[in-house]
Specification:
The complex is a heterodimer of chains A (about 110) and B (about 120). By secondary structure, chain A is mainly beta. Chain A has strands at about 5, 10-15, 20-25, 30-40, 45-50, 55, 60-65, 70-75, 85-95, 95-100, 105-110. Chain A is built from no helices and 11 strands. The chains are: A mainly beta (about 110), B mainly beta (about 120).
Chain lengths: ~110, ~120
């Protein structure tokens, strides 16, 4: 089983729509969680961290469910510029800090 | 502030040939990572350095891949001999160290795209 699993998509949504992505992780000792954004043929960039109590950054909301071992990202009022791949990232402490990336979920926002 | 620099941006080689990629991290960043990203997949960690020491190379195919980080700054990743399945983007990233890993913020270079024919 993969350490971090995501639905690869693509998710095709119209502008203004609300879309949610889920990510599951297998290691219950996972310590921290993040969402990265990767534009086509570009490098990944940190979008936001995921806190236990849930957190919001503008149109983006991230939530963590430790009991079920999943993380979610909600995007409200989708913009064309939100089209990208969203990578779920888990931090493990295996004697040193290690970040493990999921395969990513592709989002396409259309006019 | 200058970002993570990588070269070459693109490389096309034939199988069994060798190739080397270079990375210059952000100044002052102690931790350097090499990731392999195959089309349609997420980045996979190949090797992680803390200063010039290797922290994790458990997923590095050591029969053909090697990496070094001399003087704790620049790093090179070499593949010899290359196989078709090595076709991927090789991403270098850096961070301040464990504290930055706690924040999850790795700074990636633009990557080196390798095509093996």
């Amino acid at each position: 089983r993969k350490e971090v699993e995501q639905d690869p998509g693509p998710f095709n949504v119209p502008e203004g729509a609300t879309v949610a992505f889920n990510c599951t992780y297998s290691n219950s000792a996972s310590q921290s969680f993040f969402w990265y954004r990767q534009d086509c043929r570009k490098e990944p960039k940190l979008l936001m961290s995921v806190y236990s109590s849930g957190n919001e950054d503008g149109r983006f909301t991230a939530q963590l469910n430790r009991a079920s071992q999943y993380i979610s990202l909600l995007i409200r009022d989708s913009k064309l510029s939100d089209s990208a791949t969203y990578l779920c990232v888990v931090r493990l402490n295996t004697g040193f800090q290690k970040l493990v990336f999921g395969t990513g979920t592709r989002l396409l926002v259309s006019p | 502030e200058a970002g993570v620099a990588q070269s070459p941006r693109y490389k096309i080689i034939e199988k069994r040939q060798s190739v080397a990629f270079w990375c210059n991290p952000i100044s002052g960043h102690a931790t350097l990572y090499w990731y392999q990203q195959i089309l349609g997949q997420g980045p996979k960690l190949l090797i992680q350095f803390q200063n010039n020491g290797v922290v994790d190379d458990s997923q590095l195919p050591k029969d053909r891949f090697s990496a070094e980080r001399l003087k704790g700054v620049d790093s090179t990743l070499k593949i010899q001999p290359a196989k078709l399945e090595d076709s991927a983007v090789y991403l270098c990233a850096s961070s301040l160290g464990d504290r930055a890993t706690n924040t999850g913020e790795l700074f990636f270079g633009e990557g080196s795209r390798l095509t093996v024919l």
